[in-house]
Amino acid sequence: QGRLVESGGGLVQAGGSLRLSCAVYGISLDDYAVGWFRQAPGKEREGISCISSGDGSKYYDESVKGRFTISKDTAKNTVYLQMNSLKAEDTAIYYCYYQSIITGNRSWGQGTQVTVSS
């Protein structure tokens, strides 16, 4: 079983940038899909970006496409989410996860708060 630890959240003004990190312990990222969800107050958790375990293809939700970039460093076993041109509606708790391609099960980090002031 792996463990995920997110960091990099905080308070930023609209138009600013943040980079979230997700350090993963106990498993190799090469064997799993990884990605990020977020949950805004009063809303359901939504998937915003992921990297497949096979060809490494990347997916972005329309709400973040062109502004956010997902990447992973397999040497550091860490997943990143570079967030640029932040908007007030990006305010949420951001969660990283890894997903087994065999079982489909996901494991989650504890979340990191991102607050964008307008």
Contiguous uncertain segments of 5+ residues = none
Q: Summarize the main sheet.
A: 7 strands, mixed
SS content category:
mainly beta
Give the SSE order as H and E letters.
EEEEEEEEEEE
CA radius of gyration is 14 Å
Helix percent band: under 10%
Average pLDDT score = 95
User: Beta-strand percentage?
Assistant: over 45%
Number of helices: 0
Whole-Å distance between the termini?
Answer: 40 Å
Total number of beta strands? 11
Shape: globular
Describe this structure in words.
By secondary structure, the chain is mainly beta. It is built from no helices and eleven strands. Strands 2, 4, 5, 6, 9, 10 and 11 form a seven-stranded mixed beta sheet that branches. A four-stranded antiparallel beta sheet has the order 1-3-8-7, with no helix packed on it. The chain is globular, with a radius of gyration of 14 Å. The relative contact order is 0.31. The mean pLDDT is 95.
What is the structure about, briefly put?
By secondary structure, the protein is mostly beta strands. The protein has strands at 3-7, 10-13, 18-25, 32-39, 46-51, 58-60, 68-73, 78-83, 92-100, 106-108, 112-117. It is globular and about 40 Å long.
